[in-house]
Amino acid sequence: MKLWLPQATTTAPEVDYLIASLVLISCLVLALVFGLMLLYMVKYRAGSPADRGGASEKTWRLETAWTSATLLVFFGLFIWGADLYVRLFRAPPDAMTIYVVGKQGMWKVQHPGGQREINALHLPAGRPVRLVMTSADVIHDFAIPAFRIKHDVLPGRYEMLWFAANEPGTYHLFCTQLCGTGHARMVGQIAVMPPADFQRWLQQNAAGETLATAGKTLFIRHGCSGCHGIGGVGGKQSASIVNAPPLTGLYGSPVPLANGTVATADDRYLRDSILMPEKSRVAGYPPVMPSFAGQIGEEDLIRIVAYIKSLAAEQPQ
Questions:
Q1: What values do phi and psi take at 245, rounded to 5?
Q2: What is the pLDDT of residues 61-118, one digit of tens each?
């Protein structure tokens, strides 16, 4: 019987060390506090001949020392945990992006090449993977115990995390947030494969079109090309007035907004620009972008965002 879950990602050992350190320090402090309480209860019990005098000779140095030492130790654990948290949400530039949509009773997965999965996720071993997750209905929680990851998946926004699985094998996927009557069925499997086997799996499960290709079709169907142009080159209201910013090379770049702030054109920004255009209106452009909230589903949004991201490859060097 195994008492410890496998450490299937590069960050899993550090997560375990952090938790073990926190538990160990907490147990030591607990033993010290309750040990002293027990000692004093016995030593100074009623009828004990122990000397209770000399109160003026007592010093606060010992109490101050161990209290300060405990504070420093726990503050060190806090810094360690905060640093690990930031690193877990800062994906490497070469991370492969996979999209996940939670829906009551199932996890729906889309790969960049168009491959789709339900309650399953195939991954290459040794390569960083970035998940872009959202919910089509209620709050879910994406959890892979062997990877030491657990993250809320919320409706109406993108949540992101990354990991690098380094141990080929099959692992459990759970929803750990009660999400309705189908919650118990919202489980799946994570298949971590050697890179060559993963490439064969991609080829065997190739879809008719990639996410970006499907997104281009939706981009045109919903009329986006009327303002932004085919290929995202921007559109003009007249010969001198531009009514829509160009999308070519947009992804990953800083965007000055009409409210005076600057945003980074990541997945969240692109999604918000489609559903809530006034929230992220680009400076210098009129407020003519219509909202597509309630008109485009989460899976189609993923495809359109993938198409806009693909236009970044056309950015001049």
A1: -70, 150
A2: 877 888 898 899 999 999 999 999 888 888 888 899 999 999 998 999 999 888 999 9
Q: Is 94 exposed, middle or buried (0-12, 13-18, 19+ CB in 10 A)?
A: exposed
pLDDT top residue among 13 and 280 = 13
Quick one: how many helices (H) and strands (E) in the chain? Answer: 7, 14
Q: What does the angle CA 161 – CA 167 – CA 171 come to, to the nearest 5 degrees?
A: 70
Q: How far apart are CA 247 and CA 140, in angstroms?
A: 32
What is the total residue count of the chain? 317
Q: What is the per-residue pLDDT across 199-254, written as a single tens digit (0 to 9) for each?
A: 999 989 887 788 888 888 898 888 888 888 776 666 555 444 457 788 888 888 89
299: left (phi over 0), alpha (psi -120 to 50) or beta: alpha
